[in-house]
């Protein structure tokens, strides 16, 4: 499958050569590994703040591609979808997937070998078993009271 994220013509290792806040829009978008894990619903314990991941996906997540079906206009359908940026990463770290490329770069860590920017192949995030391909259920198919029946460990 061709890369659904435009990673063409970008400077080599751009994410290692400048801080996140200096990335261009295209570079920022290209940093996403396409795992889809951020589009799974989470359950947060109000008392402990602990966050549990579920396999119940946002209604716009395409389970086959792990991409948002309406990324550019998603807020028309999902107004509270977070727009991650260099200025709000710290506030969102508590729920971000352990392998999320934005988290890794923010924390000064290298991207994994399976990241498409390293491998040159958008399939490697899936073949490495890190993505949510073929493992989600859409949120409209599961009553919200039953989401805790679908808690999973993050695929790593
Ligand atoms: S978890 Fe991070 S790297 Fe994975 S799809 Fe979401 S934003 Fe992209
Ligand atoms: S609206 Fe799109 S980007 Fe936002 S959580 Fe849903 S599928 Fe993911």
UniProtKB/TrEMBL annotation:
Belongs to the UPF0260 family. Pfam families: CxxCxxCC. Signal peptide: none annotated. NCBIfam families: PRK05170.1-5 (NF003501), PRK05170.2-5 (NF003507). This is UPF0260 protein C6Y53_03610. The lineage of its organism: Bacteria, Pseudomonadati, Pseudomonadota, Alphaproteobacteria, Rhodobacterales.
């Amino acid at each position: 499958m061709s890369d659904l994220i435009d990673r063409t013509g970008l400077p080599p290792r751009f994410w290692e050569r400048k801080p996140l806040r200096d990335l261009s829009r295209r570079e920022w978008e290209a940093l996403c590994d396409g795992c889809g894990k951020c589009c799974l619903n989470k359950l947060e314990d109000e008392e402990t703040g602990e966050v549990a991941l579920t396999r119940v996906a946002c209604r716009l997540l395409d389970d086959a591609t792990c991409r948002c079906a309406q990324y550019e206009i998603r807020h028309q359908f999902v107004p509270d979808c977070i727009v991650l940026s260099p200025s709000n990463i710290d506030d969102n770290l508590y729920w971000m997937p352990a392998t999320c490329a934005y988290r890794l770069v923010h924390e000064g860590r290298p991207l994994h070998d399976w990241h498409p920017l390293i491998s040159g192949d958008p399939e490697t995030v899936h073949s490495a078993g890190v993505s949510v391909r073929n493992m989600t259920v859409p949120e409209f198919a599961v009553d919200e009271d039953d989401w805790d029946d679908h808690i999973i460990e993050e695929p790593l």
